[in-house]
Automatic annotation (TrEMBL):
GO terms for molecular function: 3'(2'),5'-bisphosphate nucleotidase activity; metal ion binding. Mg(2+) binds at E60, D78, L80, D81, D189. InterPro entries: CysQ/Inositol_MonoPase, Inositol_monophosphatase-like. This is 3'(2'),5'-bisphosphate nucleotidase CysQ. The keyword Cell membrane does not apply. Its cofactor is Mg(2+). The keyword Transmembrane helix does not apply. Keywords: Magnesium, Metal-binding. PANTHER family: 3'(2'),5'-BISPHOSPHATE NUCLEOTIDASE 1. SUPFAM superfamilies: Carbohydrate phosphatase.
């Protein structure tokens, strides 16, 4: 199978494994999240090492081997994004599988197992028009101050949601309009979502407007903006004004 087919297969299969684990009743709460991370990561690592032995891998659940930085093709994966939501029995969690080539998020698949969906960069859904009242996605537990402030200026409705992948795919699917995050993330949190969102035609950048790049020795990537291209300039200006005033 080609790279995008492999990404879809891995994300979809890992998601079904996680649903089966949760349905088994053998674990609950935090313990369920820990076991889910473990089994999904084991499957992803085994499959990638077998199917793409010459590629490097960056996974949230593995030691960060910076030797990958000298490799052109690097799989960047989050076996279970939204561990808390998964453990709570919610649907807003995801599995991220991306392939960065030359530091760019070239291929991505994001499984939303709780919704029975897997979205990918080869065939993303058609973009929907922005809502008359804009909808701004924010963290369920720690909404970013910049997002709250920008939403207030735009008159946007705040939409709390769990994982980064679930939020990004809500914009792709037309269930929200803006995902503005400044509270801290890593490359595995957004590489696959950005690959899918970019393929769908959405604007994706850092909150200073700079390009998102991947496969750095330090995978810390603390902020991003995903939104329709027609909204990006105004949102970036508002964020810039906030940062200048701070």
């Amino acid at each position: 199978m080609n790279d995008v087919e492999l990404a879809i297969h891995i994300a979809d299969r890992a998601g079904r494994m996680l649903l089966d684990l949760r349905g088994s009743g053998r674990f609950e709460g935090k313990a369920l999240g820990v076991e889910g991370d473990r089994i999904a990561n084991a499957f992803i690592m085994e499959t990638l090492r077998r199917e793409r032995p010459d590629d490097a891998i960056l996974s949230e659940e593995e030691v960060n081997d910076t030797a990958r930085c000298s490799v052109e093709r690097v799989w960047i994966v989050d076996p279970l994004d939204g561990t808390r939501e998964y453990g709570e029995g919610r649907a807003d969690w995801a599995v991220h599988v991306a392939l960065a080539i030359g530091g760019q998020p070239s291929i991505g698949a994001v499984a939303l197992p709780g919704l029975g969906l897997t979205l990918d960069s080869a065939a993303p859904p058609a973009l929907q028009p922005a809502a008359q009242t804009l909808r701004m996605l924010v963290s369920r537990t720690r909404p970013a101050a910049e997002a709250v402030a920008v939403a207030g200026t735009l008159g946007a409705e705040l939409v709390p949601m769990g994982s980064a992948g679930a939020k990004a795919m809500a914009v792709v699917r037309g269930e929200a309009d803006i995902y503005l995050h400044s509270g801290g993330q890593y490359e595995w949190d957004n590489c696959a979502p950005v690959a899918v969102a970019r393929a769908a035609g959405l604007h994706c950048s850092r909150i200073d407007g700079s390009r998102l790049t991947y496969n750095h020795a330090n995978p810390w990537l603390p902020d991003l903006l995903i939104c329709p291209a027609g909204l990006a300039e105004e949102i970036l200006r508002l964020v810039g004004d906030l940062n200048q005033a701070a």
